Amino acid sequence: MIRLQEDLIHVNRKNMITHKRRDGFVGQRMITLPPQLLKNAIKQNPLLVQLYITQIGYFPKASFHYRERRNGCSDNILFYCQQGKGWYVLGKDLYEVKANEYAILPAGSQYMRYGADEQDPWTIHWVHFSGSLVEELNRLFAITNSRGAKPIPFDEKRIETWKTMYRSLEMGYTIPNICNANFLLYQFIASFLFRSLIFLGLLMCCPQKTHWLMIL
């Protein structure tokens, strides 16, 4: 992880203005769940209210990927970079995201933008998630604007979890499909926040010491 003041890193904004794009990459996958549909699903199954997917996607070799959110985002955004590099800006700080690193951008009104490296564009799996427990999740695991990207060993099971979430939603927005995808969201997030089963064991044996498990 690299954290630097934005004015210390040259970002070729001229190229970005000419070529930047939010999506439309060859081989991409992306689903955005309609807000009203989510609202109705939560009414039918209150378990969904705690954490739920709002968008999910996969961008392979996403050349000129660029997104600006002047008023922040109401969701947490999780990026997992498998290959290449990218970056994001929160406020005035710029962070680099490299292969086998992930970042969680916390929900809020803070200005943000993010995109792919021009020379070595990232390949990312990503998910937007919201819910009544997002604020508490961010507090417990110190998911803040200054957290930066974190290294994570590659794990095929993590990718399979993402694929199952995506396939569930791709099959149709039925309550069982939405529930399956969102229950798997917990597993997907846990695969980043907890680096090994040892940590999970400590959590079960010593719940009063959960601060040991925070990846700061």
Considering the chains and any ligands shown, give keywords for the structure.
216 residues, alpha+beta, Jelly Rolls, six-stranded antiparallel beta sheet, five-stranded antiparallel beta sheet, 11 strands, disordered N terminus
Explained architecture:
The protein has 6 helices and 11 strands. With 216 residues, it is of the alpha+beta class. Strand 6 and strand 7 form a beta hairpin. Helix 4 runs antiparallel to helix 5. The longest helix is centred in the C-terminal third of the chain and has 19 residues, at 175-193. It is globular and about 45 Å long. The chain starts with a strand and ends in an 11-residue tail after the last helix.
Outline the low-pLDDT stretches: 1-17, 196-200, 209-216
Strand content is: 25-35%
- How is the main sheet built? 6 strands, antiparallel
Looking at CATH, the homologous superfamily is Regulatory protein AraC
The residue-averaged pLDDT reads 86
In CATH's first tier, which class applies? Mainly Beta
Helix fraction bin: 25-40%
